[in-house]
Specification:
The structure holds 2 protein chains of 2 kinds. Chain A is 78% helix and 2% strand. Chain A is mainly α. Classes of the chains: A mainly alpha, B alpha/beta.
């Protein structure tokens, strides 16, 4: 008993509140960069109603392209731009598999993702390429977290503004219509294959852009850096939506919705920082992420169920039955 | 003007579920014709409209609009010629877009959708005027998400969407069947008004014999994928439900066994 108490005391005394605070800016910077990835996912998951698994691959593609180009001496901004284009091409492939070849969305994404693993390895030539800020001119880096947060925010704001504009245009509207009601879209003359491919391309382009920034931030590109990206992106989108609705009820306009996607990503990374600070094994972080996403996905469903369940009727009637029996007795 | 030439369509060919849905349908509508379509369940009424709209390719035959063969065009490329209202009020509109955005999408039917604004201010004002005529109070709720509206309101909006850009042919597929009787009457009256005002050519499927008789200038009855009755002009004007039932027995040699049609008499 005493031994156990001692263990608990020593566990808590080993936790340093200051280090939690110190790591917070880093969490925020990572959250913003992944928030850009989540904005890309928002396009497919929320607007197009398409769970696009290719993002795990295209995120790493962004990092791979950036690392190889930067090392080859290409200016970093061009490397970022080429990463974006590489992501767009990845999206085109998923779109082609889905629309032209008729492969179901989830499978099309998985195929692109698995193909990109080899493509990324070929781009990099090995599984990990370091790009230190000491040797190369980078857009941002973990060595200066304040600047990284600022630059990340500039990217996020510009992307949100562009998305607000684009999804308000005729073309953007037709993408939103496709996701919400494909039958009506066809009846209104929208070629839903084209709108799907466009949306997938833009989405994967943003994801690769985020991968490019993240490889610079962490100082290396790794073949596995995109593993589980879709789950992290989903976590950001869903956490953002739940928190946003708590603040704004249902009255969120598009800009606010998009902003809360980034907020969701930041909160996710703060939570992740907390988990690591509590000295949970790093091996378990993916498990933790999966549990968080599962909870956030399940809560709205379970709430609806509890409002509208057979058990509730059974309980109600059981109560009434007692009073009904009472009245017949009397 | 619409012309159908010997349309055939069989679903699930070569399986136990094989169903001949359209068995040599030919039909010619003149400009301004308002033709109602009746028939029992599985007679091929909705299939006929889907064949015109290009939901799937026909097995045989041709669909001509203004003399142009559109049989080889996919659904979205036929859209410029057609306005469509469906049975399910959810099907014609996008739930999570506003009334104005839905109308704007329809107003661009058949046009290239580029990077100019999806809804302009001038447009929104024009829509307010159009909806005011409907007298449903929708003109004050332009940015309301359509998903929050009732079935009748959604059908009214779909009707406006189908006709906001004058179509060569308006297809109404039992568009009042999912509504309560009062709302159904209102939407039907609205449809009639729009068709008359814009001198539209229209094809309306209904299961209600009385509606089929009172509306339009022509009536066709379908059974087993064929047109078995085609009544127009003076004969249509003096038609009664009883006449229709008698004619059906004459043509098909059987009683009309369809509760839905008989009950809605």
């Amino acid at each position: 008993m005493v031994k156990c108490m001692n263990a608990i005391v020593s566990y808590f005394s080993s936790l340093n509140p200051m280090s939690l605070l110190a790591q917070l800016p880093g969490n925020i910077a990572q959250g913003i960069i992944w928030g850009i990835m989540a904005l890309g996912l928002f396009i497919t998951y929320k607007l197009l109603d398409f769970a696009d698994l290719s993002v795990d691959g295209s995120f790493a593609t962004g990092g791979a392209v950036t690392a190889v180009l930067v090392i080859a001496g290409v200016p970093v901004w061009i490397a970022v731009a080429v990463s974006l284009i590489a992501g767009i091409i990845a999206g085109l492939v998923t779109g082609f598999l889905h629309t032209v070849l008729g492969i179901p969305g989830i499978l099309a994404g998985i195929l692109t993702q698995i193909a990109l693993y080899s493509v990324n390895l070929n781009i990099m030539g090995k599984s990990n390429i370091p790009i230190s800020y000491r040797n190369y001119q980078l857009v941002l880096s973990a060595s200066d977290i304040t600047a990284a947060i600022f630059i990340g925010l500039v990217f996020a704001v510009v992307i949100i503004a562009l998305m607000y504009w684009y999804f308000g245009t005729e073309q953007g509207s037709s993408i939103r219509a496709t996701g919400s009601n494909p039958a009506m879209s066809r009846a209104q003359g929208i070629n839903i294959n084209v709108t799907k491919v466009i949306a997938l391309s833009i989405s994967n382009g943003l994801v690769a852009l985020s991968g490019s920034l993240f490889s610079q931030y962490q100082g290396f590109a790794d073949i596995n850096m995109g593993r589980g990206a879709i789950v992290i992106g989903l976590a950001a989108v869903i956490i953002g939506a739940v928190i946003g609705e708590a603040f704004f009820k249902k009255g969120m306009n598009f800009v606010v919705r998009l902003s809360f996607v980034v907020v969701g990503a930041i909160l996710y990374y703060i939570a992740m920082g907390l988990v690591l600070w509590l000295k949970m094994p790093t091996d378990d972080t993916k498990l933790f992420t999966a549990v968080v996403v599962a909870i956030f996905l399940a809560v709205p469903y379970l709430q609806e169920r509890s409002r509208n369940s057979f058990k509730k009727v059974a309980k109600q009637n059981l109560k009434k039955l007692l009073t009904w029996e009472d009245s017949t007795d009397a | 003007m619409l012309e159908l030439i010997d349309i055939h369509k069989t679903f699930n060919r070569g399986t136990v579920n094989e169903k001949v849905a359209l068995d040599g349908v030919s039909l010619k509508l003149m400009d301004g014709d308002f033709c109602t379509v009746i028939g029992g369940n599985g007679a091929g009424k909705s299939t006929l409209l889907n064949a015109i709209a290009g939901v799937w390719p026909v097995d045989e035959g041709a669909v001509l609009i203004d003399g142009k063969d559109i049989s080889a065009l996919p659904e979205h490329q036929r859209a410029p010629y057609l306005g469509r209202v469906f049975q399910d009020p959810k099907m014609g509109t996008v739930s999570d877009m506003g009334i104005d955005e839905n109308l704007a999408i329809a107003a661009r039917r058949g046009q290239r959708r580029g990077l100019s604004w999806g809804v302009t201010k001038a447009e929104r004002e024009a829509y307010v005027g159009m909806l005011r005529e409907f007298d449903l109070g929708l003109e004050e709720r332009m940015t309301t998400k359509v998903g929050l509206l009732s079935g009748g309101q959604r059908q009214a909006i779909t009707l406006l969407m189908a006709t906001i850009k004058k179509p060569q042919l308006l297809l109404l597929d039992e568009h009042t069947a999912a509504l309560d009787p009062k709302t159904a009457a209102k939407v039907l009256e609205l449809s009639d008004k729009i068709i008359t005002e814009h001198r539209l050519t229209a094809l309306m499927v209904t299961h209600n014999m009385k509606d089929a008789i009172t509306h339009g200038n022509r009536l066709i009855m379908m059974s087993d994928g064929k047109i078995i009755l085609d009544i127009a002009g003076e004969e249509k004007r003096s038609l009664t439900v009883k006449d229709l039932l008698r004619k059906f027995e004459e043509v098909s040699g059987s009683q009309l066994e369809n509760d839905r049609m008989l009950l809605s008499e």
